[in-house]
Amino acid sequence: MINYRRQIWLYPLFQVPLMLMVACLIIAALGWFLSWGRPPVAVTIALDFSSSTAGIVRQQEIQAVNSYLEQNQELNNPNQVQIFGFASQIKPLTTDFQADTSQVKNQLKQSIQNPNLERELGGGTNLNLAIKAGTDALSGVEKRCRELLIVSDGEANVDEQIINSAIDNNVKINAVVLGGRNSPAVKTATNRTEGIYLQDEASNLERLFTDTLFTKFNSNNRWMQFWLAVAFIFLMWMLVLPLDRWVLQGIIGLNMTFSGQIALGNALFWTVLTLTLIWRLWGLPFGASC
HEC states along the chain? Predict the structure, then answer.
C-alpha cells in the first residue's frame, strides 16, 4: 500500500518547510556578508591616566583608541563614542557621545595636550569612579547597546552598588587589565554585566581594541544564531514525512498512525526545545538586541 502513495517531495508538508528553511539560510548568509542585524552601539572608553601609565603605556592607550575610531568609521552606523581619563579623579576627554571619528580624535588630542590634565586627575586609580561616570554617561543613551570599556594597570576594589547600578542601566562593563595582572574584583564586574575581561601587556592593547573588543561590540551573532536556529526548526518539520515513511514504517515497521504521531512529536519537541534555547541563551535579535 505504501508503494502507491505519492513521492514525499510532492507533499506540502515537505515542500513548505523546505522552502522556509532555504529562506532562513539565505537570510543568514546575507547577514554574514552584509552585516545585517548588527546592533547600534554606544561606547564609553575610560583610560587609566594614573602616574603608573605615564610614558609609553599612555601612548599605547591613545593609539589603541585611535585605531578603534578608525575602524569604527568604516561602519554604516558607527558606534557613538565618548572618552574619559581617570586616576584619582575622572574627566571627560571628549564632549558627549559622537560618531564623527575626526571630531572625536581632535577633541582627544586637545585634551591630552592639556598641561594640567595629570594634576587635575591625580595619581591614584579609582575604578569605582570610572565605572560610575561611564554608567551615568551611558544611562542617557537611548536605543543603543551600552558598552563601558575600562583600561587600567592597577588592582582596585569595585563596590557592589556600582556593579548593580551598571546592571540596572543595562551597561556591560568590559575591562583590559594591563601588565598581565589579575584583578578578581574587575573580573567579577565584567562577568556579572556580561562584559569581556582581558589581561595582556600594553603593547598588545591596539590589537585587543580592534580584533577583540570592536568585533565583539559590533557582532551580529545573535541575528545569525536566530536564523540558523529557525532553519533547523524547519528542517525538523521537513523530515516529518521521511522519518514517518522511510524510517518508522519502512525500517522499523510501525503502523501508519503510530509512526505519524512519533514523527510529528519529534518535530514538535525540537521546535519547543530550539525556541526555548534561543530565548534563554541568546534572546530575540529584534527590538532590544543587546
Answer: CHHHCCCHHHCHHHHHHHHHHHHHHHHHHHHHHHCCCCCCEEEEEEEECCHHHCCHHHHHHHHHHHHHHHHHCCCCCCCEEEEEEECCCEEECCCCCECCHHHHHHHHHHHHCCCCHHHHHCCCCCHHHHHHHHHHHHHCCCCCEEEEEEEECCCCCCCHHHHHHHHHCCEEEEEEEECCCCCHHHHHHHHHCCCCEEEECHHHHHHHHHHHHHHHHCCCHHHHHHHHHHHHHHHHHHCHHHHHHHHHHHHCCCCHHHHHHHHHHHHHHHHHHHHHHHHHHHCCCCCCCC
CB-based burial of residue 163 (10 Å sphere; 0-12 exposed, 13-18 middle, 19+ buried)? buried
In degrees and rounded to multiples of 5, residue 132 shows phi and psi of: -65, -45
Alpha carbon distance 197, 183 (integer Å): 10
Max CA separation in the chain (angstroms):
91
- Chain segment 168-186, per-residue pLDDT in tens: 999 999 999 998 778 899 9
C-alpha cell recorded at residue 53: 601609565
Q: Among positive and negative, which fits the CA dihedral 72, 78, 82, 87?
A: negative
Give residue-wise pLDDT tens across range 26-65: 999 999 998 888 999 999 999 999 988 888 999 999 999 9
| Cβ-proximal residues to 72 (8 Å cutoff; 6+ apart), any chain | 78, 79, 81, 99, 101, 214
Q: Do the bridges between strand 41-48 and strand 80-86 make them parallel or antiparallel, or are there none, so unpaired?
A: parallel
Tell me how far apart the alpha carbons of residues 213 and 208 are, in angstroms, rounded to a whole number.
6
Question: pTM of the predicted model, to two decimals?
Answer: 0.84
**Cα–Cα distance between 203 and 81 in angstroms, integer?**
23
For the segment 74-93, what is each residue's pLDDT rounded down to a tens digit?
A: 999 999 999 999 999 999 99
